[in-house]
């Protein structure tokens, strides 16, 4: 497939794009900073500028596409990961403006140009737990896609708005638009640098609902979405099936989630961030986890 990938130079994108290239896709990275990786085409784009987004989506990927003389190739899909990645990087209003305007521009251009699939990064933060003022517990566990999304912070608010926009663009066009509520992204080197502290102090993972996703498995998730057609508008939780701490699910329930309803029985170390929808509908099957990499 010929794919425009926004934000491919970021923490997640720089692992997802190589995975997609390995699957045989052609990828154009639309970002403010190029990605230095063999085989990727880079285009510097300010996604908050509507005209730049339209131009990027009607652009050649590189000079070799001039050779056939058959006109401008079309994109088969857009993967939109670009965003200010959390609060406290820019002022809240600028974060909200940037994230919502960029996503609106991408959705509008992609759907009006008839690109058949858009996959966009939403977030675990939509559930309101990650950046809450004080401790916020889930309404129930495991947290699935039906859980209320009423956050307090500008980053998560922007993601909720983006989901609403995506649903509306699907309603008008009928095109496939899949939102990924991505949990805390972990790069391979972070298992050794960060996870020993998580094992010593599970409190550090409370705001992430004790979940995570390996950046390479996020590439697999995007590939699953690219290969699955006809779902319309859907959102999917994205996480590893395992916990990010050394405690069992029962120990976490006793220590952190007393009084929180449990809607079903759970495995001994099953994530509280329910990924069963993605597993059933997309064939999502993460392979990389901290236990194997740390030898635990």
TrEMBL record:
Organism: Puniceibacterium antarcticum
Protein name: NAD-dependent epimerase/dehydratase domain-containing protein
Domain of life: Bacteria
Alphabetized InterPro entries for the sequence: Epimerase_deHydtase (IPR001509), NAD(P)-bd_dom_sf (IPR036291)
Domain (NAD-dependent epimerase/dehydratase): residue spans on this chain: 3-193
């Amino acid at each position: 497939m010929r794919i425009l990938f926004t934000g491919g130079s970021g923490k997640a994108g720089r692992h997802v794009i190589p995975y997609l290239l390995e699957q045989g896709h052609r990828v154009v990275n639309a970002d403010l900073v190029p990605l230095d990786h063999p085989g990727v085409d880079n285009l510097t784009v300010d996604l908050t500028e509507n005209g730049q987004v339209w131009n990027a989506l009607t652009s050649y990927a590189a000079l070799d596409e001039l050779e056939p003389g058959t006109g401008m190739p079309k994109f088969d899909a857009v993967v939109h990961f670009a965003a200010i990645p959390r609060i406290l990087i820019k002022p809240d209003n600028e974060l909200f403006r940037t994230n919502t305007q960029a996503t609106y521009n991408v959705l509008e251009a992609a759907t009006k140009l008839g690109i058949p699939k858009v996959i966009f990064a939403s977030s675990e933060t939509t559930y309101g737990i990650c950046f809450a003022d004080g401790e916020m517990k889930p309404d129930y566990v495991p947290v699935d896609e039906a859980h209320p999304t009423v956050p307090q912070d500008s980053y998560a608010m922007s993601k909720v708005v983006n989901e609403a926009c995506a649903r509306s663009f699907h309603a008008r066009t009928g095109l496939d638009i899949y939102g990924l509520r991505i949990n805390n992204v972990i790069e391979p080197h972070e298992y050794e640098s960060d996870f020993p502290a998580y094992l010593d102090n599970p409190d550090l993972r409370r705001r992430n609902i004790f979940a995570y996703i390996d950046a390479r498995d996020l590439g697999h998730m995007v590939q699953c979405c690219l290969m699955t057609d006809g779902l319309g508008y859907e959102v999917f939780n994205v996480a590893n099936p395992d916990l990010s701490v050394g405690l069992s699910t029962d120990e976490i329930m006793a220590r952190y989630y007393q009084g929180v309803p449990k809607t079903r029985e759970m495995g001994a170390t099953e994530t509280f961030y329910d990924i069963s929808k993605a597993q059933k509908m997309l064939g999502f099957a993460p392979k990389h986890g901290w236990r194997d990499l740390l030898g635990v």
